[in-house]
Amino acid sequence: MNLADIAIEAVVAANKAGDEWMAKASPKYVVTDDAGSNHGTLLDLCGNAHVQFRDKRSKNYKDCVKLDLVRKSGNGVFELEHKYRHRQEHGLAMACAEAAKKVLESHGITDLRIWSYID
């Protein structure tokens, strides 16, 4: 299987994991102002998670660069265009990233890690 097809499989897995996370999600936090007015809810803490190469000298990384599958910024993050990519829930991002990483590793791309943070 070629890298482009593997990336598509990873996106499908990320979408499925995201769908499952969203189905179980319920509001955890209420957003209020200093006066106590309610401005909505959050499903989880704000944050993000990405699949990232550990070593940008690796053959897998270089092959992905050639196919535009990693960010141009040089941080080694896979550009996986799953449907939840622009959401801000940390748990959702982690579910998607972990599912995608599992698929990539199942195809022999093993020099990966999850880079995550909470805003």
Question: Would you write up a description of this structure?
Answer:
This protein is of the alpha+beta class and 119 residues long. It has one domain. 39% of the residues lie in helices and 19% in strands. The chain is built from three helices and four strands, in the order H-E-E-E-H-H-E. The chain has helices at 3-24, 59-66, 90-106, and strands spanning 29-32, 38-42, 47-53, 112-118. It has a two-stranded antiparallel sheet. Helix 1 (3-24) packs antiparallel against helix 3.
Please write out the topology.
Layout: H1 3-24, E1 29-32, E2 38-42, E3 47-53, H2 59-66, H3 90-106, E4 112-118
Antiparallel strand pairs: 1-2, 3-4
Helix pairs in contact: 1-3
Defining traits:
119 residues; alpha+beta; two-stranded antiparallel ribbon; two-stranded antiparallel sheet; 3 helices; 4 strands; 19% strand
Element string (H = helix, E = strand): HEEEHHE
Number of strands: 4
Strand percentage lies at 15-25%
Strands of the largest sheet, in order across it? 1-2
Q: What would you call the shape?
A: elongated
Q: Sheet bearing the most strands, described?
A: 2 strands, antiparallel
Between the first and last Cα atoms, what is the distance in angstroms?
37 Å
Kindly provide the radius of gyration, computed on alpha-carbon positions and rounded to a whole number of angstroms.
16 Å
Helix content: 25-40%
Q: Overall pLDDT, averaged? A: 93
Low-confidence stretches: none
Number of domain units? 1
Oligomeric state of the chains in view: single chain
**From the helix content, strand content and strand pairing, which structural class follows?**
alpha+beta
Number of helices: 3
